[in-house]
Amino acid sequence: MTEAAWIEGVRLAPMTSWRVGGACRAFTEPGSPEALREARARADRLGWPVFILGGGSNILVADTGYPGLVIRYRARSWRIDEADGAKPLLLVESRAPLAGMARESARLGFAGLEWAEGIPGTIAGAIVGNAGAYGGEIAQVLEWVDIQHPDGESERWPAARMAYGYRASALKGRDPSGPAILRAALRLRRDDPARLEREMRRIAEERRAKTPVGASCGSVFRNPPQASAGRLIEEAGCKGMRRGAAVVSERHANYIVNEGGATAADLRALIEEIQGRVRDASGISLELEIQLVGFADR
Q1: What is the separation, in whole angstroms, between the first and last Cα of the chain?
Q2: Separation CA 91–CA 195 (nearest Å)
Q3: What is the pLDDT of residues 235-291, one digit of tens each?
Q4: The pTM is what?
Q5: Residues belonging to the active site
Q6: CA of 122: how far to CAs of 34, 179, 208, in Å?
Q7: Which residues contact 231 (CB under 8 A, 6 or more apart)?
């Protein structure tokens, strides 16, 4: 087993969809569970914190960066298993792109992931955050997930152990040095490829029509029970509000767009201003759907 190289002072901004954030102390990209285990063990010996980076689509990295090791696990192979006539399973490693897997499985005539067309990020990120759209979510199709604990031990969790809720799971919000997802099995079903292509084209068109142009992380806030975060933000008069080059989208109020040159401080200040205005207008405290990385108070 070859240990993955460590590179010091790598800027994280290009690896995030918001295109902001400083450098990490060191960065590595292991490609196997063994290399991942060794990277985490080495960081532990050094006393460094560890952050497992996925597709970078749902995080805000501080301008000061991350004071430890950032690991981007690069295993992304996949196959569809139809053994013994059972329901087909998509066996997929963590860094495979969610939308790409939706397209590939549909092309082969397998349904179950059409809702993921156009959603950025990786399979692992989708599993942690219970990604979903258009009536579907990862909780509906997950069969099991293989995880690696910080001590290097691996374990298979059935879907029930993920304790899924709306954009929530047993892994979301936990210590970023905690369990890392290695691979998962997603339940699919046979369907007509032509019908799936039409459905995914419809979803793609709808998504394009309401998704703001520019660097963003998607929805910043979770929808409160029986309410829409975007509607609450709009009713609080936040559309078009800005801090530096960070602006609340006029097209979709739950998106904040980096128009070029925004800092993490700009984005966080805007996030907190939105939360304050919505709380004053409606009494509702908006919770973040994104993860803050490298901030001293987090």
Answers
A1: 35
A2: 23
A3: 999 999 999 999 999 999 999 999 999 999 999 999 999 999 999 999 999 999 999
A4: 0.89
A5: 167, 219, 289
A6: 21, 16, 20
A7: 253
